[in-house]
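Lecture 7, part B: from sequences to assemblies.

Below are the input chains for today's worked example.
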Amino acid sequence: MSTAPYAQRRAKLASLLGPKGLAIVPSAPEQQRNRDSDFLYRHDSYFYYLSGFTEPRSWLLIGGDGTTTLFCQPKDLEREIWDGYRLGPTAAVAHLGVDAAYPVTELDARLPELLDGRDAVWYPFATHKALETRIDGWLGSLRARVRYGALCPGQQRDLCGLLDEMRLVKDSHEQAIMRRAAEISAGAHVRAMRLSARMLRDGQEVREYHLDAELLHEFRRHGSQYPAYGSIVAAGANACVLHYRADAGLVRDGELVLIDAACELDGYASDITRTFPANGKFSGPQRALYELVLASQQAAIVATRAGARFTDPHEATVKVLAQGLLDLGLLDRNKVGGLEDVIEKRAYFQFYMHRTGHWLGMDVHDCGGYIEPSEVGTVSERKDPLSGEIIKDRPSRILQPGVVLTIEPGLYVRAAEGVPTQFHDIGIRIEDDAIVTQTGCELISRGVPVTVAEIEALMRE
Ligand code: GLY
Ligand code: MN
Ligand code: MN
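Predicted structure of the full complex, as structure tokens:
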């Protein structure tokens, strides 16, 4: 493992802490599933970002002078026989490029001393249960020694703000992993599409879990550690349930399947959705809605470039979708008015109720503020036309090269009065992952077809 990207990030963070600051970054706790079975362990993203280390029960301390101290599980042959290899503090120094490493059993004894003489202690606020209590304990121990010359930090500060800003822009090391994660995920979607058409052609019963298994197989075959989030494999009307999970639903000839699934690779998520006809051929109404969502996605892609605002792709999407809903008769002009009225009154919300994207990175809904930091003081208020709530608006983040986001418009048509029956129970989302560049964006998830012609051709093979 190259330690360079992690060392660079620690050095950058150190330069932001102030010379006498100390950052404390715990890894994630293990989570019990039931009795003596745990959920599969997933490291903490901040901790991994700064260390490249995935063992539980580890802590990273970074001083404003750049000195890094690791606390990790001590070597223990008996535990390693049951739970697996541990790096241990002695090997950790060279392997991770830290300055010092100690067994985590010494954390409570050493922390007060490491806090002595600091002016600020930084840690991620409201992310780790009982972390504040733990830090209070160390500060309390230090304060008990003030008569003997100990100097307590006067400030506690939230580390999330600094790390979120750093993580928002992906360096070349991160971009390379994300391209590969998206490539693997795209291949998995291709396999699921092909399997669906083939099984139906062969007269076999297809269930959502058959397609889910295909996705998982492809993720793991290429070394992905796990899905980046709970896979959605939604056949027919299930696609109108936004957070539906892959279940046992029957995949019927003539219906659409919506798959929102992607892998995590070496700590980085991908996030892809495709919607395709189970049998490989779109019907007229399915095609009309699909082409509309695709056109709205294309408008969002064009709006995604350095210098644009985060909300620009969403606004571009909404314009296309709103016009299409009027043209297809899903919205009645006599009731909702023209394009501007539909947008202003959010009349499209019945069919499109989520945003067009989010930051993507180590976490599928990655960290990073959506407000432009240089304009936080600019606040305007408006009344939401649907809820009547007063909403505070601040200028949306200006995109810059290296930021990664999803572009994921959709339409979800539930049966309702006034909605043309040929569109009932159709749910469509198309989601791609984009790295923002100076002049536009690089779509890293297009290893799976997206146009009607390409999908139909693939599924005929
Ligand atoms: N798969 C989660 C999302 O699309 O936001
Ligand atoms: Mn997404
Ligand atoms: Mn998704």
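Note for the exam: The domain at 169-460 is CATH 3.90.230.10 (Creatine Amidinohydrolase). Keep this in mind when comparing with the next example.
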